[in-house]
Amino acid sequence: MALNNLARQTTQSPQPFQATPDEQPLHKAATRTVKLPKYLATSKFEKCLLLVGSLMVITMMVWLVSLKIGVSSAQQRLQDVNTQITSLQTKNTNKRQEINELSNRSRLEKIAKKDGLSLSNNQIRNVNK
Fold it and tell me: Both ends of the chain: CA-CA distance in Å?
């Protein structure tokens, strides 16, 4: 047979290591079980922090609600004032129109003729405030 550097295929499978009954293992497996608590204990600082945070959140919620109420009432008052302004502007426009109708030249001439008076353009002065 020629010597070559090729590996040979073996038919035997490796056997796992088994301790003989005379030999004892060096270390025993740990069988301790650790019980974990269901809830972690909270410290006084954590409780105080939670209390302060909760109070701040509640205070901010109350403040936000009161702020919203204040804004709503201010909007209502603004709407009321705008309604009053619109009403007064309408009344002012109607009064101006009435003044223009009453001071119409043809109307004044008609009233003057009815009472037996005459209008002379030289003697009429217009006064505006």
Answer: 139
Q: Where are the alpha helices (DSSP H) in the chain?
A: 44-102, 105-114
Q: Which two tokens stand for residue 112?
A: 């003057």
What is the separation of C-alpha 55 from the centre of its chain, rounded to a whole number of angstroms?
Answer: 21
94: nearest Cα among 84, 82, 102, 106? 102
d(CA 22, CA 11) in angstroms, rounded, equals 31
Q: What is the pLDDT of residues 85-116, one digit of tens each?
A: 999 999 999 999 999 888 888 888 888 888 88
CA angle centred on 104, ends 99 and 109, rounded to 5°: 135
Q: What is the pTM of this model?
A: 0.50
Sign of CA dihedral 89, 92, 94, 97: negative
Rounded distance between C-alpha atoms, residue 92 and residue 80, angstroms = 18
On whether the CB atoms of residues 112 and 119 are closer than 8 A, the answer is yes
Helix (H, G, I), strand (E, B) or coil at 15: coil
